[in-house]
Design a protein that fits this description.
Elements lengths: L1 E3 L1 H7 L2 H16 L9 E6 L3 E9 L4 E8 L11 E8 L6 E6 L1 H19 L6 E5 L3 H10 L7 E5 L3 H11 L2 E2 L2 H5 L4 E4 L18 E4 L12 H4 L2 E4 L2 H7 L1 H6 L5 E2 H5 L11 E4 L4 H17 L8
Helix pairs in contact: 2-3, 2-11, 3-4, 3-11
């Protein structure tokens, strides 16, 4: 069985392969070709410590992710997420690999957002607002740059010093919240906010929002006005159980992302769109399979045990 550290995963996983892989994974999910229960989340300490169990089986891979979510780690040297993914051979159940899953979680989340944004945002989008300055802000900047040529990148954080540090590292501008959002073509919300902070009245007509933070049923990032736009989710069932933005706003879900990728539904690029992502297991398992195949192709199976 192959064992891969985060450093090894980082060498094997690229945006060029990952983004189209996520399109295919979500199309398969929304077409009913994936077996996947809802995430089982155990609360250790409300608001601070959680453990999630996320299994899935597709037509070509099977596995599970164990992920710890510690929002209390925000602002410390420890990330808010740690994870391990175990991958199995689908036909006979043989274990193939165990790999570090924090980076996979980080990258697949941003890759899904990038794929959805490519479908929904105007292709000439050049102004990006990042609300949050952690690992997801960085990953989204990298992933979205695969498709869009930004000449104006703005960042806001509830801790202004963090926004300034991010801006200096990534060629962005640290700004106040409302100023960062106004006139932005694409907005990313990546925080652990308990209350909505993004106001719908700030969004320009036709803007696209990737809302990837606040992954609890009572937490929110977007107000009702923002949610009262064309709403896309990764999973209807998961969003209606896990997303406070969706549950508390009672916003109607227009489509799953996989329905867009499969061509079953479409939304006009002129519309203001919201993609609420909670993250689902098939994204992790398909990404792990991609990493595994790259490792085998490069001969890293010699490290297996």
């Amino acid at each position: 069985m192959l064992t891969l550290t985060e450093a090894e995963v980082a060498k094997l996983l690229t945006w060029e392969r990952l983004i189209p892989a996520m399109e295919e994974a979500l199309a398969a999910f929304s077409s009913g070709r994936v077996i996947q229960p809802l995430r089982n989340t155990m609360t250790i300490e409300e608001g601070k410590r959680y453990l999630g169990v996320m299994p899935a089986a597709t037509e070509s891979e099977m596995g599970a992710k164990l992920v710890s979510f510690y929002p209390g780690n925000a602002g410390t040297s420890d990330p808010t997420h740690f994870a391990v993914i175990v991958l199995f051979e689908i036909d006979h159940g043989r274990p193939l690999a165990v790999m570090e899953g924090r980076l996979i979680t980080e990258m697949r989340t941003a890759a899904v957002s990038a794929a959805v944004t490519k479908l929904l945002a105007p292709p000439d989008s050049c102004k990006l607002a990042l609300l949050g300055s952690g690992v997801q802000a960085k990953a989204h900047l990298e992933a979205l740059r695969q498709t869009f040529a930004f000449d104006d990148v703005r960042v806001w954080s509830r801790t202004p010093a963090h926004a300034r540090r991010f801006a200096e590292a990534h060629g962005a501008k640290a700004m106040d919240l409302e100023d960062a959002v106004r006139d932005a073509d694409i907005v990313v919300t990546a925080t652990n906010s308990l209350e909505p902070f993004l106001r719908g009245r700030w969004l320009k007509p036709g803007a696209h929002v990737n809302a990837v933070g606040s992954p609890r049923p009572t937490w929110r990032e977007l107000d009702d006005d923002a949610m009262n736009n064309i709403l896309i989710v990764d999973s209807r069932e998961a969003a209606l159980k896990e997303s406070g933005d969706v549950i508390l706003s009672n916003a109607p879900i227009f489509a799953e992302a996989g329905e867009l990728f499969a061509g079953k539904k479409s939304a006009p690029r002129s519309a203001t769109t919201i993609f609420k992502s909670v993250g689902i297991a098939t994204e992790d398992i398909v990404t792990a399979r991609l990493v595994y195949k790259e490792a085998i192709a490069l001969g890293q199976d010699s490290k297996s045990s």
